[in-house]
Amino acid sequence: MTEASIIDGKGFAAGLRERVSRVAADFEAKAGRKAGLAVVLVGEDPASQVYVRNKNKQTVACGMNSFEHKLPVETPEADLLALVEKLNADPAVDGILVQLPLPSHMNEQKVIATINPDKDVDGFHVVNVGRLATGLPGFVPCTPLGCVMLLKDKLGSLSGLDAVVIGRSNIVGKPMAQLLLAESCTVTIAHSRTRDLPAVVRRADIVVAAVGRAEMVKGDWIKPGATVIDVGINRLPPAEGETKGKLVGDVDFASASQVAGAITPVPGGVGPMTIAVLLRNTVVAAHRNAGIGLDE
Ligand code: NDP
């Protein structure tokens, strides 16, 4: 059995950030201002704080403005909506991202619906969901778009391939399936009610696992030579003597890499793509909002 080739998401993301930096510099020269991303964080969730810090750092490193808005956890929903409206109206802001999850007294759908769809660089607004489903230009959620970039880089055309997406969330599974359909794959969406998941996965030339269950997808579920994209990020309980458990995906890498043709590792696969695609979406938004053409 040959070992799968490893899909280097970390390297691909670094290349994408370089391309974004060049496009952002070109935008600044043409528009006379930098592209700008506003990130709103409500509360003190430690994981969200790390994400937001990384987003801000990488936005600035790519030559764009980062506007950070930190609100206390007890902020009334009306105040958050007012801030989003203010950002909608601010010509220096091209992209708006409200870090999820929000505190429980806020309605996430209502907050997302308040973002101007043309500044919704996360692609969560129902208008962008509809644009994706109908093939119109819009913004596509960053993680699945990053997965498709990795797949096309590895395989070239995806046309006619059998793809199985495990997971049907609004932020990963569903947009992933739409993107694969747009690439002319034959798409199956599996979820917690799917019968005989191993048999469904065994049909696939492309497997995308977005479940949130550590090492669930085993090597003997994978068709030999298939391409496996592991979106899952799960932390195992710490082994003896460790303070922190190991990070693993939804795929059992040790067995799947013996069967697959290519596979993303965790960490270093899909994870680094998410912020890189967010920056790409922001620079695209800047061009569209300023009416400056861009070959995407
Ligand atoms: P959700 O919890 O929203 O969705 C999980 C999906 O998996 C659901 O559709 C659920 O089915 C399905 N599922 C649960 N158990 C099973 C099972 N036993 N068999 C088949 N399907 C099952 O998760 P997300 O989509 O938000 O995230 C998925 C994973 O991706 C997580 O590990 C998350 O950490 C990671 N992630 C990584 C990102 C990155 O790399 N940057 C970004 C976003 C997420 P049902 O709908 O029936 O309940």
Task: Describe the structure concisely for a colleague.
This protein is α/β, with parallel strands linked by helices.
CATH topology group of the largest domain: Rossmann fold
Overall average residue pLDDT: 97
How can the largest sheet be summarized?
A: 6 strands, parallel
**Quaternary class:** single chain
Return residue spans where pLDDT drops below 50 for at least 5 consecutive residues: none
- CATH homologous superfamily placement of the largest domain: NAD(P)-binding Rossmann-like Domain
Rg over CA atoms, rounded to whole Å, is 19 Å
- The structural domain count equals 2
What are the distinct ligands in this entry?
NADPH dihydro-nicotinamide-adenine-dinucleotide phosphate
Shape: globular
With strands numbered from the N-terminus, the spatial order across the biggest sheet is 1-11-8-7-5-6
Helix content: 40-55%
SSE ordering: EHEHEHEHHHEHEHEEEEHEH
Overall CATH architecture of the largest domain: 3-Layer(aba) Sandwich
Beta-strand percent range: 5-15%
Total number of helices: 10
The termini sit apart by: 39 Å
By CATH reckoning, the class of the largest domain would read Alpha Beta
Beta strands, count: 11
Q: SS-based structural class?
A: alpha/beta
Keywords: Amino-acid biosynthesis, Histidine biosynthesis, Hydrolase, Methionine biosynthesis, Multifunctional enzyme, NADP, One-carbon metabolism, Oxidoreductase, Purine biosynthesis
Protein name: Bifunctional protein FolD
Organism: Novosphingobium indicum
Pathway: One-carbon metabolism; tetrahydrofolate interconversion
